């Protein structure tokens, strides 16, 4: 059934909405068969009824994001289109009752280039638990977004004035190379261990602003050993690669938290590099802190991998090799 609708965008940032040279408008037009004309502050949409309704929703949600974030990126436009079309295909959002805005709580952070949001069921649960608890342990294999989402949540907390600083830390455990043989002074020797944390921040904060934060110690990145004796107040604290923290280091880290502070501890218990087969604090803590209010554990798996498509296959291959030729799924089926 053919339909026609008009919506006014007078007083709005039409350039920000439509994009330079109408780039955002072209993205929408390429996804639908309907005719879209923008003239004099009015968007006219003609086409099949379900498409016209979807396009109207898309424009409304883009206006919402534009007013909230100050700008739109290509990724924002494509994300909104995908959310609207998927919800309609699943039978949701009928009669205008549902909105992409309902998904807004899932968005962790807006940056100049993207919206950072959980992409899998496990990641959504991860974000939900962080928002409800003061300490969250995220355990899972490489590529599941443990560190990236943790840093995004920390930056969002700083941006929203929920925390006054961010402290990011990792154990400087040697994994194949000895610190003594690496070139440079102590900082230069340790920096490679902290590089993934810098990489995540580089994605989320403009370079000049990040430099300012680091200089003023609003954001601090340091080896785990440097946390001893400190009290961290009003901070969002992240311990990354926690499988390489000893039991004593884990206790030391967790007891650094001061008033109004929160912590995320991330790690992969299949990649322990502690020397002499020392016990991992991340493995032990799962038995020590069970049932304490305000502390939560989330377990991510291969289904939450968001890196290259082959990462899932690599994880499966290692699991199968370590289990004598049987995958984890195969073990479950035998049970």
Strands across the major sheet, in which order?
8-7-9-10-6-11
Largest sheet: 6 strands, parallel
| Number of β-strand runs | 11
CA-based shape: elongated
What is the terminal separation in angstroms? 53 Å
The percent range for helix content is 40-55%
In terms of DSSP E residues, the strand content is 15-25%
Number of helices: 12
- Low-confidence segments, given as residue ranges, are 92-102, 175-179
Structural class: alpha/beta
Order of helices and strands: EHHEEHHEEHEHEHHEEHEHEHH
Q: Report the radius of gyration as a whole number of Å.
A: 23 Å
Query: Please, what is the average pLDDT?
Result: 82
Quick gist of this model?
The chain is of the alpha/beta class and 335 residues long. It has helices at 14-18, 23-31, 49-69, 74-89, 121-132, 146-159, 186-204, 207-215, 247-254, 281-288, 309-322, 328-334, and strands at 2-8, 35-39, 42-48, 109-110, 115-116, 135-139, 165-170, 219-223, 235-239, 262-267, 295-299.
Structure description:
This protein starts with a strand and ends with a helix. The model is unreliable at 92-102 and 175-179 (pLDDT under 50). With 335 residues, the chain is α/β, with parallel strands linked by helices. Helices cover 42% and strands 16% of the residues. The chain contains twelve helices and eleven strands. Helix 9 (247-254) crosses helix 10 (281-288). The protein has a six-stranded parallel sheet. The chain has a three-stranded antiparallel sheet with strand order 1-3-2. Strands 4-5 form a two-stranded antiparallel ribbon.
């Amino acid at each position: 059934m053919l339909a026609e609708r008009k919506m006014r965008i007078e007083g709005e940032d039409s350039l920000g909405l439509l994009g330079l040279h109408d780039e955002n408008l072209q993205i929408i037009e390429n996804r639908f068969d309907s005719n879209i004309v923008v003239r004099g502050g009015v968007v006219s949409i003609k086409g099949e009824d379900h498409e016209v309704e979807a396009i109207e929703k898309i424009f409304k949600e883009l206006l919402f994001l534009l007013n909230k974030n100050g700008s739109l990126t290509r990724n924002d436009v494509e994300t909104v289109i995908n959310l609207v079309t998927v919800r309609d295909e699943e039978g949701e959002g009928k009669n205008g009752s549902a909105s992409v805005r309902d998904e807004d709580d899932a968005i962790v952070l807006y940056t100049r280039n993207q919206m950072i949001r959980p992409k899998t069921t496990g990641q959504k649960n991860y974000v939900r638990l962080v928002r409800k608890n003061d300490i969250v342990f995220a355990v899972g294999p490489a590529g599941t977004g443990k560190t990236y989402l943790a840093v995004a949540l920390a930056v969002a907390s700083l941006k929203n004035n929920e925390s006054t600083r961010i402290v990011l830390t990792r154990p400087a455990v040697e994994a194949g190379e000895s610190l003594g043989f690496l070139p440079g002074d102590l900082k230069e020797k340790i920096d490679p261990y902290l590089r993934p944390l810098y990489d995540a921040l580089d994605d989320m904060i403009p370079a000049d602003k990040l430099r300012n934060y680091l200089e003023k110690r609003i954001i601090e990145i340091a080896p785990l050993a440097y946390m001893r004796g400190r009290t961290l107040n009003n901070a969002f604290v992240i311990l990354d690669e926690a499988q390489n923290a000893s039991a004593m280091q884990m206790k030391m880290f967790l007891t650094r938290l001061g008033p109004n502070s929160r912590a995320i501890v991330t790690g992969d218990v299949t990649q322990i590099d502690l020397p002499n087969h020392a016990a991992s604090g991340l493995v032990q803590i799962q038995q020590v802190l069970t049932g304490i209010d305000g502390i939560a554990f989330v377990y991510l798996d291969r289904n939450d991998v968001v890196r290259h498509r082959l990462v899932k296959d690599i994880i499966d291959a290692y699991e199968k090799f370590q289990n004598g030729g049987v995958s984890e799924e195969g073990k479950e089926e035998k049970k």
